[in-house]
Structures are given as C-alpha cells and as structure tokens.
Structure to design on (600 residues):
C-alpha cells in the first residue's frame, strides 16, 4: 500500500488537529446514527494522539467500546476530475469512516493504514462531514487478541495477555488525497549488489488505464543526478559504483515512476527512496551487505506522556537522538508496527529495524500474570482459526506497507507465542511460509518466550533467526546474578548446538526505580540494572552465535493495572520522560566501543 504523497499529479491535505469527540457510553452511536448530524458533545480531541490520558476523567480512560470523532472537511476546488480518497494512517483497534451519511471504510487492526475512494460521495470545492468511530476492544477477532467481559453491575472490562496499556484512538495522521484516473497503485523494489554495481529490481502496478500508457522509471542519486533509467512497469536498473545503504551510514537513491499517455502527457508520477543493500543469514551470522552485523539497541514502544501512542514528530526525533547518543544501531518495533514516519526516519538515518506484527500475547501461559485465562493456547476458546486468519492479515498488511524500507531487515511475526504445545507447529508453519512468499528477500522470525527453551520449543527450525526474550536474574534467579549467568549461558549454548542459527537477545531487562541506589545491588536499584545488563553482556560475548542485543526497554512505559507494575513498566534505560538512568551511560560505554570489535 503506497503512502499518499504530493507529486506533479497528486495532492494531499492533512486532516490532523481538533475533532469533536464523544464517548459512546451506552453503545448507541451506530443505532442512533450519530454520523448523520453534528455530534452532541462539548469535548474536543486532538489528532494524532491516544485519547485515554487527555481528559481528567477515569470513565473515559477506562471506556471499552466506541468513541466518535467528527469534523468538517473541505475538498479543494481544483480536484474536479480527480479520484478523491480518505486515508487513516491507523485507528486503534477498529475504525469505521463515514462521509456524510455513508460508511466508506471499516478496518480492524490498530496499527495499519486503510483508505477509501470517496469520489462519488464528495464534491470539489464543497465540504463534507467526516465522522470516524473508533473501537478499542480486543477480542478473538483482533490481533492482538483479548477478551471483553461484563461485570455484574454492567461495566465492560477489557482483558489481554500483554503488559503495555491498551491506548486507543486516532494515533496517526488522517489525510485527504487525490490521485489521477490512471494511477500507480503499488511499487515493489528489491535491491542487490553485484561487485561494485547495485541492482534495483522494480515492479509497478498501474490501474485505471487502457494498457496503451507507457511507464518510465528513473533513479537519481542523493544530489538529484540521474544514474539509471528504464521503461516498462517491471525491470531491473543497474547502478555502476553504487553507494550502499549501510547501518549508521544511510545512502538513499530516489526512484521515480512516471505513467504517460500516447502523446507523452504525464498521467501519474510517484517516487520513493531506495537504499541499495542486501540482507542474508549465513550459518550463525547475520549479514548486511555481506558483512556480519551485530544488533545493539532496544525493544521500544510508541509511548509518551499525555499523547500515549500518538505519533509526534518532535518526540520521534528525540527518541532517535537518544538512540544515537547511547550507541544503538537498531531497534525492534515491539509489539506492533510503528508509524510509517518512524521507518522513513530510520531509512534516512541508517538505523536497522526488526519489524514486528501486533501478534503479542498468543500464550495461555501468561494467564496467571494477567488474571484468569484459557488453559491451552491453541484451542477453540483462544488461538483458533479466526486468530489465524487475522494473523495472516496482519502479516500481509505489514509486508505490503513496509516492504520497500531498507531499514527493515527482519519480519518478526509474533512476540512470545506459546511454541511448545502440539498446536504451535500447525499454527506457525503456514504463517512462516506466508511471510516468506510475500517477501523472499528478508529473514523471518518470531520472538521466543522464556517458558519455551530449546528443548521444549517445536517451531524455531521454521525460521531464519532465533530471537529470545530472557529474564534470568529478574523473573527467575531474582537478584542472584551468579546463578543467572550460568543458567543463561547454558541455555544459549543449547540453542546454538541445536540450531546453528544467529541468536538475537531481543529482550533482557530489570525494572528500575530512577534514583533508587543500593550498595548491595538490590533489585529495582540503578546499580542492579547496570550489573544485570553487564552479566548478559559477558554471556553474549562468550557465545559465538549471539549476533545482537536489544535491552528491554528503551524507556519506561505505561501498562495496564496490575500488582506487577508501579505506574508502568520500569525496565527502561530512560525514564518515561526520557531522562537517562545509570544503565543508559553503561550501555553507551559498551555500544559506542563495540561496533568495530564485533563487526570487524
Ligand atoms: C516480556 C514481554 C514484554 C514485557 C516484558 C516484561 O515481551 O512485552 O513488557 O516481558 O515483563 O514477556 O517486562
């Protein structure tokens, strides 16, 4: 799915800002057709942002169900004769979009864009009423899954098997955009390296034409100088002496696709940045441009004070600046796809990304942490055929959205699913196959949970890399780093011997209260966090197959209520307002010196 852009043939209007806002307390909005008239409310809500922490009202924060957003939109008068579309970069977790009285789009899955062609419902130069109903419920029909229960006094309660808070709303931008009648609908780019040359294999899908149109492509370097050109909607361009996209040293070319009619009139134009690079797993090494790469960085969250999971350009830049400061070369989009702006930024700044679907919490083993739950994972009542269908959709949409980003080097199709029950292999084998079919060029993996080590796990051979979340010294061997070190090393050696594949430690961390100090390395102190991380690092350095380390988490983040958390998860190297804990300085020391040692 192409991100809308302004080109010589396309225009774009941003619809962010304040919307009238109403909580559908009695669940009557659809029945009473709230979209047919101005919302009866005095509340307003900013887009993009989560609505939960914006109002000083517990009932809004805890609401389970629909909320409604509404505003007037004027269609530019110059758009006569164009196709007109509305696009939501996301609606968490379900969005229903009404243009005046008509439902034009409905989408389930909280972290993916969707759009609708509304040409027949609007008029250039005139206004229309845009109403968006957003539902935050997680059910058997969503990824991630959840359960809504109704208490005896009639309140709806949301349960789910992950710790991060279920922020909801319009977290990303809303757009009105135009496309011409004959339009480029999709572009796929695959890059390669042959000696000193780079190859750019492209294929474009053009819709609405008669077939007699011509497609031309040009590739320009960062200075705008054309370095290759081709004809036709598919082809391979060769760039002599190509400058490669490298971690820490991004270089982007720009591919422009033009569609023209017989007399040479430009019908449509679309362009995208292209980083020429290769990714490959060979034995127990992870190679970028045929050179071993060692991941340093974090599992992150889109999570900030007040705006929750809302995208904000300045906050995003600040997070990337902190990654740079601490010496991180990569991160994982735990536990859902992030805003497209994040990936574009990573492309431009040479940060490597493990891109994850929102399939988190497919594990009955967590029931005890999160209250009552199902006994087995792969069962009619929990992860069933509906879940699998939604999971297939999540993988397909993620790859369709993000396939052209050079920063993305691994697809992570799930976080900590149960991988030891009988049902795990039949569930995951088709999903791994689907991801590979949709993108044969990138390694595919899933993130393994501590409860399913190498002698219990039944699915890791289906994947290219081993990604492990481990908490030796925290959830087990709590505070006893000596025993933890032994247990961790033994387990990693077990994975190494069994699979011979690259291992990335995708999570390791200890909750830490900033400002709490201890002479005795007590858990929760800043000293303990640093010693805990040091212990992992000693082990990583002793196990050859370890090709990366992502600390859990980049920053403290908000969680749902529970006795395991004090105002959120405190495993951040930075606090929630992005101040460094002592561990951040220790990580900086290691990671800024590590690069040459590990990769050389
Ligand atoms: C892991 C999860 C992560 C949690 C973390 C923790 O992948 O989302 O936040 O544990 O407990 O199980 O801190």
């Amino acid at each position: 799915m192409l991100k809308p852009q302004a080109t010589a043939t396309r225009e774009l209007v941003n619809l962010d800002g304040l919307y009238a806002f109403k909580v559908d307390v009695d669940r009557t909005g659809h029945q009473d057709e709230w979209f047919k008239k101005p919302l009866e409310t005095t509340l307003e809500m900013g887009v993009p942002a989560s609505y939960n922490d914006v109002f000083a009202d517990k009932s809004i924060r805890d609401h389970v169900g629909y909320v409604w957003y509404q505003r007037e939109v004027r269609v530019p008068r110059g758009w006569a004769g164009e196709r007109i579309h509305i696009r939501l970069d996301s609606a968490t977790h379900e969005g229903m979009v009404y243009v005046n009285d008509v439902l034009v789009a409905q989408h389930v899955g909280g972290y993916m864009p969707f759009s609708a062609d509304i040409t027949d419902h609007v008029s250039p130069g005139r206004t229309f009423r845009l109403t968006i109903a957003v539902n935050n419920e997680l059910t058997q029909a969503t990824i991630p899954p959840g359960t809504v229960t109704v208490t005896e006094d009639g309140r709806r309660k949301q349960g789910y098997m992950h710790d991060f808070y279920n922020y909801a709303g319009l977290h990303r931008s809303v757009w009105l955009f135009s496309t011409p009648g004959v339009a480029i609908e999709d572009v796929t780019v695959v890059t390669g390296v042959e000696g000193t040359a780079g190859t750019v294999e492209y294929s474009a899908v053009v819709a609405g034409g008669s077939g007699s149109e011509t497609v031309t492509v040009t590739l320009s370097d960062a200075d705008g100088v054309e370095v290759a050109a081709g004809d036709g909607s598919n082809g391979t361009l060769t760039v002599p002496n190509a400058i490669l996209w490298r971690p820490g040293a991004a270089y982007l070319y720009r591919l422009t696709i033009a569609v023209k009619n017989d007399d040479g009139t430009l019908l449509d134009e679309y362009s995208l940045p292209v980083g020429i690079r290769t990714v490959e797993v060979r034995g127990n090494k992870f190679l970028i441009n045929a050179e071993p790469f060692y991941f340093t960085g974090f599992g992150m969250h889109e999570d900030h004070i007040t705006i929750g999971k809302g995208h904000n350009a300045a906050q995003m830049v600040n997070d990337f600046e902190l990654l740079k400061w601490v010496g991180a070369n990569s991160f994982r989009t735990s536990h859902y796809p992030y805003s497209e702006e994040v990936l574009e930024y990573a492309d431009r700044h040479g940060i490597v990304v493990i891109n994850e679907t929102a399939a988190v919490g497919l594990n009955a083993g967590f029931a005890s942490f999160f209250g009552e739950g199902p006994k087995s994972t792969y069962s009619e009542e929990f992860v069933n055929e509906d879940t699998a269908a939604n999971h297939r959709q999540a993988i397909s949409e993620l790859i369709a959205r993000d396939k052209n980003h050079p920063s993305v080097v691994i697809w992570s199709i799930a976080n900590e699913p149960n991988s030891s029950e009988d049902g795990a292999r039949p569930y995951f084998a088709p999903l791994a196959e689907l991801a590979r079919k949709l993108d044969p060029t990138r390694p595919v993996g899933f993130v393994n949970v501590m409860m399913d080590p190498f002698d219990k796990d039944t699915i890791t051979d289906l994947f290219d890399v081993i990604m492990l979340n481990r908490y030796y010294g925290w959830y087990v061997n709590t505070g006893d780093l000596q025993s933890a070190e032994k247990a961790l090393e033994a387990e990693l050696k077990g994975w190494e011997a069994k699979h011979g594949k690259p291992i990335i430690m995708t999570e390791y961390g200890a909750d830490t209260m900033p400002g709490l100090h201890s002479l005795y390395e007590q858990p929760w102190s800043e000293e303990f966090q640093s010693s805990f991380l040091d212990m992992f690092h000693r082990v990583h350095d002793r196990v050859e197959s370890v090709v990366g380390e992502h600390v859990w988490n980049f920053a403290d983040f908000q969680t749902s209520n529970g006795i395991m958390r004090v105002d959120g998860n405190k495993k951040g190297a930075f606090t929630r307002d992005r101040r460094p804990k002592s561990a951040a300085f220790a990580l900086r020391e290691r990671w800024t010196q590590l690069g040459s040692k590990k990769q050389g």
Summary: Residues 183-274 form a domain with the Immunoglobulin-like fold (CATH 2.60.40.10). The two ends are 38 Å apart (CA to CA). The helical segments are 58-61, 313-326, 340-349, 385-402, 424-438, 481-499, 526-542, 582-599. Residues 481-499 form the longest helix (19 residues).
